[in-house]
Design goal:
Layout lengths: L1 E5 L7 H14 L3 E3 H10 L3 H12 L7 H12 L8 E4 L5 H13 L6 E6 L2 H7 L2 H4 L2 H22 L3 E5 L4 H11 L4
Parallel strand pairs: 1-3, 1-4, 2-3, 4-5
Helix pairs in contact: 1-9, 2-3, 2-4, 4-5, 5-8
């Protein structure tokens, strides 16, 4: 099974990675993030790796230009360990990324089976994290809206293969919701 996990802004830390790893283990496939792919590619001494490395010197992995991101994804998904599936967090993050991912997988005779979107309302985010650490409330709301717009476009692209997961509550309950969405109780 090939799964993409969409992140909620300001909720990208430990629990999201734990969910990714739990799903990957349950499915018996590798789990990795887009950022991990970019960084690993940048460490390779290939032409693509050198290009990515030069980019990483001037910016964070999360800001990798979409055309370069597509090449990094194609490189990683061409490796043998992902032939039977993967759980990829943080990608696709726009409709263009979704189209690029579809093209890569199509060349491999595969497709993305499911996209899960872990949803935490902005009001919950503002209640749980100190605004002074994150930015001002207006800045948080703006970033959240931008992220939601991109996630909405990915969701529209995948249609019935996309599922929202309520990511508020006890972590065991959130894991159960994700497993149920995949039919893996």
């Amino acid at each position: 099974m090939r799964i993409g996990l969409l992140k909620t802004p300001f909720c990208e830390g430990f629990m999201h990675l734990e969910r990714r790893d739990m799903l990957a283990e349950r499915l018996g496939v590798p789990g990795f993030s887009f950022e991990e792919m970019v960084r690993a590619c940048g460490m390779k001494r290939t032409p693509l790796g050198r290009e990515v490395d030069e980019y990483l010197i001037s910016g964070p992995a999360a800001r990798t230009p979409i055309p370069l991101a597509a090449r990094v994804v194609a490189d990683r998904l061409g490796e043998p360990d992902v032939a039977t599936g993967f759980v990829l967090s943080g990608y696709p993050y726009t409709a263009q990324c979704a189209r690029d991912l579809d093209a890569v997988l199509s060349k491999l005779g595969a497709r993305l089976d499911r996209v899960l979107r872990f949803v935490v309302p902005v009001e919950v985010i503002l209640q749980q994290w100190p605004v002074s650490v994150m930015s001002d409330k207006a800045g948080v709301r703006s970033e959240y809206r931008h992220h939601q717009h991109n996630a909405d476009s990915v969701f529209e692209h995948y249609g019935d293969r996309a599922t929202e997961i309520d990511a508020v509550g006890d972590e065991d309950l959130i894991r159960a919701r994700a497993l149920a969405a995949l039919g893996l109780r």
